[in-house]
Amino acid sequence: MKKLTIKEIAKIANVSPTAVSFVINNKKGVSDETREKVKEVIEMTNFKPNLNSKRLILKKSFNVCIAINNTSSPFNDLFYLEIAKGLLEKSKEYGYNIIFTDISVSNGEVILSETVKNNDTDGIVFFQDTEEIILNKLDKLKIPYVIADAHSSDISTNKEKNNDNKDKSEQDELTDNIEQDKTVKYINPTSVSADYYKASITAVRYLVDNGHKNIAYLSSSYIPNFYLRTFEGYKNVLEQASISIKPSWIETNAVDEQTAYECMERILRCNKKPTAVFCTTDMFAVAAVKCAKDHGYKVPEDISFCSIDDIILSNYIEPNLTTVRIDKFKIGSLAMELIAKKIDGLEPDSVVVKSDNLIVRESVIKIN
Question: How far apart are CA 12 and CA 4, in angstroms?
Fold first, then answer.
């Protein structure tokens, strides 16, 4: 039996094909009477529109592209794999296909994939912040986009809140130097992000609550906003507990497992060793734990570790890693909701997911 088309359904219901497409896609623009009439015909004929028909009538590809930064780290891949799972699962509800794509910048020019150039995508979800030149290009092409796991947002620091306090500690100066070295552009596209400030407070407060007063900080300054948020949380908890910060225990040059390992080595070369290390990602913590063990330290008996992310590997290393869980699946699911709304011409607000869910495992020991 020949498969019915939208035009034939429209003819049976004595309405326009556009009215049928509005009903199929649950859009406004038709009366309740017309909507019920079309639904009755669809149910009677067991009609299921094919994707090509929907594309032609609605002028959509029903594809959403994921643009992910190239990374050499399998741990980063684990983090974003969970976001991709959430996005893929949610995309089924909206009838979209998910396509991975490359968008890069070469010699000041944005290089788009054939999928994007040929208008074969209705929107793009970026994993992590991307260059402003790319976002400007997409704005000109009128292609909607959303950032998943965004870091480029306004930062509220103690220095901003306490402008009357002109005294600066050594660590305030360290923070200032990094801010001067990095160009931070405060572009605020629609995004889904974690509250890394709250996550860092949760992690460091747990270390303090377990008796630790000598706490090192291991992070990356290559994403300035991420560094500033996590460091601010670390600093605030220690200040509230009247614990001094030792600049020699601050390492901000980690970008992958190898550099995180080297950061931990520098911490271990200090005259006085910390009893705990706060790592801003599980990836850094896994490398730091390995470094400590390689140098003869017991974890957590000699040095405790706490971090942020809760990638799947954190539950399998020895000892299991205490960490603040970032709901990566939810980030992906919300990103799909936001991009679907933007594709429909809406301007949804950005979303911040709950980021204080501490997962207590074996890598932190209570001390007197």
Answer: 11
pLDDT by residue (tens digit) across 318-366?
Answer: 999 999 999 999 999 999 999 999 998 899 999 999 999 999 999 999 9
Q: What is the pLDDT of residues 236-276, one digit of tens each?
A: 999 999 999 999 999 999 999 999 999 999 999 999 999 99
56-63, Cβ contacts within 8 angstroms, sequence gap of 24 or more: 57/6, 57/17, 57/18, 57/21, 58/21, 58/25, 60/122, 60/343, 61/119, 61/120, 61/121, 61/122, 62/95, 62/96, 62/97, 62/122, 63/96, 63/97, 63/98, 63/99, 63/115, 63/120, 63/121, 63/122
Burial of 339 (0-12, 13-18, 19+ CB in 10 A): buried
Phi-psi region of 141 (alpha: psi -120 to 50; beta: other; left: phi over 0): alpha
- From the list 325, 305, 326, 329, the residue with the least C-alpha distance to 317 is 305
Phi, psi at residue 218, to the nearest 5°?
A: -125, 120
Task: Please report, in angstroms and rounded to a whole number, the separation of the first and last CA atoms in the chain.
Answer: 79
Count of other CB atoms within 10 angstroms of residue 340: 22
Q: Are 83 and 328 in contact (CB under 8 A)?
A: yes
Q: What domains sit in the chain, N to C, each tagged with a CATH number?
A: 6-58 (1.10.260.40), 63-152+329-353 (3.40.50.2300), 158-184+196-325+355-359 (3.40.50.2300)
d(CA 321, CA 308) in angstroms, rounded, equals 10
- Give the tens place of pLDDT for each residue, 182-201: 333 334 799 999 999 999 99
